[in-house]
Design a protein that fits this description.
single chain; mainly alpha; 65% helix; globular
């Protein structure tokens, strides 16, 4: 363990890494139920997608652990699965096989781009202050996810304005109780505070009627078959314009979601090199590409690096042993699915909210004196929660950076790669 993962070099140990990996899993275990439910709307069977989700997450996270030695976990991405179902299948009237073909092609393209160092170059093109802002934005974004999932923050039907939910009962109350418990544990510097908080909140949810054990509950069960989704492609459609539009969208959203998560979480973990580079970025991006390709073969939407990885980092995870522990939990979940699906969103919400706090710390290192640096950074971390998108925050932050530098006579301060990325962003906005 020590030699392979270099634990002492990263100032960590086996216990810390394993706890961190389990914590990461607990905060993202919801994807095991949410992803199959969402893809059911695309006409895909729940059981097959459940198995595909767990297996693709396991394989991608295992690649991250063993080849990149980074504490990041991967799974089918939220937002990307919504695009898969509600835009491609329902909106465009395409089959789920068409959508899976686009995801498969995306994975293959990402593997090629990773070997050509294109995606790594994109990471290196992001200005240092925006890298710091990405961490802050992810903090706000993940806290917002926790508040929305637990119904502490809600939006009324037919309205885009958010407001406080009913916090004196139900899911919202349980989440706030969990927030207090987890906050006290953190203040007392209890090891594994986030994980203990999740378990305690889940247990408290039983008498409240929020954590429920159904009559069909099984402690142990075999993984459902993937026969209805395995290798279901429509290669006859790959040269159509519709496929181009869908593929381009998948590529853009996934690329900058993954880049944003890698940069943001690595910044928080103080892993960035002196020149602002993510260690083993190429291997990390390869894990994402392999996960997407394998996921499409199994029958699920795009696999991406999860922002919930920051929960494990907050618990001290610093190496691939954290990711290995998370991968192992996905393997266990295949046979104990009913147990993990007991955990309500209100139980994971406190961890997400407090991880949001931890992710905010790089804000103190952002240069707020130079407005050509401060404004793009501010736009980056403001847009992420409000647009509900990591990639949108990066897009508008980078474009603001380029325009402000050019219009204030500082065009020579912008890296040529940053200009190229800016042009890609403009093309993305024009295509929609």
């Amino acid at each position: 363990m020590e030699k392979f993962f270099k634990l002492k070099e990263h100032n960590t140990n086996v216990k810390t890494e394993v706890l961190a990996g389990i914590t990461t899993f607990m905060t993202m275990a919801y994807i095991l139920i949410v992803n199959p439910l969402m893809l059911m709307d695309a006409g895909m069977p729940f059981g097959a997608v459940f198995t595909a989700t767990a297996l693709s997450s396991l394989i991608a996270t295992l690649v991250m652990a063993l080849f990149a030695n980074l504490p990041f976990a991967l799974a089918p991405g939220m937002g990307l699965n919504a695009f898969f179902t509600y835009v491609v299948v329902i909106g465009m009237g395409k089959s789920f096989e068409f959508a899976l073909t686009a995801v498969f092609l995306e994975g293959i393209i990402f593997i090629v781009l990773t070997f050509l160092n294109v995606r790594e170059a994109i990471i290196d093109s992001i200005p240092l202050n925006i890298k710091k802002a990405i961490s802050v934005g992810i903090g706000l974004f993940i806290a917002f996810i926790g508040l929305v999932n637990s119904e502490v923050i809600i939006h009324q039907p037919y309205s885009t304005i958010i407001e406080l939910g009913n916090v004196i009962e139900g899911t919202a109350l349980l989440a706030l109780v969990g927030l207090v418990i987890t906050g006290v544990l953190l203040a007392l510097k209890i090891k594994g505070a986030l994980l203990i908080g999740i378990i305690a909140t889940t247990l408290i949810g039983i008498p409240m009627g929020i954590t429920t054990v159904g009559e069909e509950f099984k402690l142990l069960s075999a993984p459902p078959s993937m026969s209805d989704t395995f290798f279901k492609f429509e290669f006859s459609q790959i040269f159509t314009f519709d496929m181009f539009i869908v593929l381009f969208t998948f590529l853009m959203v996934d690329m900058f979601d993954t880049v944003g998560t890698l940069v943001g979480v690595a910044t928080k973990a103080e892993m960035l090199s002196e020149d602002g580079k993510v260690p083993n970025a190429k291997q990390a991006l390869l894990a994402d590409a392999i996960g997407t390709t394998v996921g499409a073969l199994f029958g699920t939407s795009t696999v991406t690096t999860y922002v919930e990885s920051s929960a494990g980092v907050a618990e001290g995870g610093r190496t691939g042993l954290t990711a290995l522990s998370t991968a192992a939990m996905f393997g266990v979940a295949l046979f104990f699915s009913d147990v993990f699906l007991l955990i309500p969103s209100a139980a994971t919400a406190p961890a997400l909210i407090l991880v949001g706090l931890f992710m905010m710390s790089p804000i103190k290192d952002i240069d707020f004196e130079d407005y050509t640096e401060a404004i793009p950074a501010f736009i980056t971390f403001l847009f992420m929660p409000l647009a509900y998108s990591i990639s949108d925050g990066i897009v508008f932050g980078i474009l603001a950076y380029i325009f402000l530098k050019v219009l204030t006579g500082k065009a020579n301060k912008v890296n040529i790669l940053t200009y190229i990325v800016g042009l890609i962003f403009i093309a993305k906005l024009l295509i929609g």
